[in-house]
Each structure stands twice: as structure tokens, then as C-alpha cells.
From TrEMBL:
Protein species of origin: Streptomyces alkaliphilus
GO molecular-function term, one example from the UniProt record: monooxygenase activity
Signal sequence region: none
Compositional bias (Low complexity): 159-170
UniProt key word Secreted: no
Region (Disordered): 155-207
Protein name in UniProt: FAD-binding domain-containing protein
């Protein structure tokens, strides 16, 4: 491949699909040996939905997702202190959808040719060859290709890239938002507890 994507998560697969759609030979290296159905629900905001539509995956994503019109914040103790209305807050700026990470991963993988994703391959380093081209070093050998590292800035591809790299904080306050509906999921009785609307940005629950 002309481009090697290091990391087979949502970001890496979406990058590979976009490159493939433009006719760029691409490969994906994923250190996990097998595809996992584990993961959490994801809230895709309008920019993310538009990005997936731009690479031709809009219909497939909508088939596997639910409207993110209402969400709640749930504490580890089971309380629901807040309720969010993303769709109402955004107005006509685009749709918000909720999808399980495993289902989104399946949609992305299905859009790539067989053999694009190589599982069980760990990148151990990167260097430049005698002509200045980037080389990906794995336990199985070396490959010359332009490199896109999407496994997280704290992982080896980011810090080992010949151009250099460093960790950049990606967020501020903590918290989690989950859709209140999911295909096939039983409703949590605790979700009927009163919830107080509050801004989407929030910090750790004081309780």
C-alpha cells in the first residue's frame, strides 16, 4: 500500500475508507489479534455524521443507529442527575445519532476490500530509509509507506514517527453521555428518575 494506517479503531478505519474512496492504496495495521464486539455507545455529532456521509457511509450508519434526540448522564451510583437534548440545542445544524462502537466498526470494515485490515500486527517503531521515505517497523518485518498513526498520541506510532510527536490533551472535564434508547436494549427502570437539564459540558459528579 502507498499509505499505512496504524490503528484499526473507528478513526483508523474511517481514514482508510476515505483514502480508498479516492483510489489511494491503503493498508491498516491493528495490534489486536481478533475483532472484538466490545465497546460502548457512541454519540456522533453533526460534523461526524457529515464526515461519514462524505465517504459514502451515510445510509449504512443510519441503518445501524438511532436518533440522539435525548440523552442522560448516569453516575456510577445509578443516579440520573442530568438530561440532554442535543437535537434541540443544535436546531437545523445537523443530526445527532447514537450507534454502538462495534456496529460502526462493522460498517467501516465492510467498506474496505478484503485483506486491507491486518490484525495481530504490532508496530514497534518507524524510521526513514536511505531515500528519506518513512518505514514502518513491525515484529514481522518492515514496510515502506506513508504513515498515518491514529492509535492515540501516547502510543508508539505518535512518538516514534520520524517527524516527531508528543502527547496533546484531547479533553477537559470528565463525564459520559449515553443514548437513552438502543435497539434491543431493555429500558433501565432507574431512567425514570427525575433529571435536571444542564449544559452538555460537565464535570465529575460531586456525589
Amino acid at each position: 500500500p502507498r499509505v499505512m494506517v496504524v490503528g484499526g479503531g473507528v478513526g483508523g478505519l474511517a481514514t482508510a475508507v476515505a483514502l480508498h474512496a479516492r483510489g489511494v492504496p491503503v493498508g491498516v495495521l491493528e495490534r489486536s489479534a481478533a475483532e472484538s464486539g466490545a465497546g460502548s455507545g457512541l454519540t456522533l455529532w453533526p460534523n461526524g455524521v457529515r464526515a461519514l456521509e462524505a465517504i459514502g457511509l451515510g445510509p449504512a450508519v443510519r441503518e445501524h443507529s438511532l436518533p440522539g434526540d435525548t440523552a442522560v448522564i448516569r453516575t456510577p451510583s445509578g443516579r440520573y442527575p442530568s438530561r440532554l437534548d442535543p437535537g434541540g440545542a443544535l436546531g437545523d445544524r445537523g443530526a445527532v445519532v447514537a450507534v454502538h462502537r462495534a456496529e460502526l466498526t462493522e460498517v467501516l470494515r465492510a467498506a474496505l476490500p478484503a485483506g486491507t485490515v491486518r490484525a495481530g500486527v504490532t508496530v514497534t517503531g518507524m524510521r526513514r530509509d536511505g531515500r528519506g521515505r518513512p518505514v514502518v517497523v513491525t515484529a514481522a518485518g518492515e514496510e515502506t509507506a506513508d504513515v498515518v498513526g491514529v492509535g492515540g498520541v501516547r502510543r508508539r506510532p505518535a512518538t516514534a514517527h520520524p517527524a516527531g510527536g508528543h502527547a496533546v490533551p484531547a479533553g477537559g472535564e470528565g463525564g459520559a453521555v449515553a443514548p437513552t434508547r438502543r435497539r434491543g436494549a431493555a429500558r433501565d427502570p432507574a431512567a425514570t428518575d427525575p433529571a435536571v437539564p444542564r449544559p452538555a459540558r460537565h464535570g465529575p459528579d460531586p456525589g
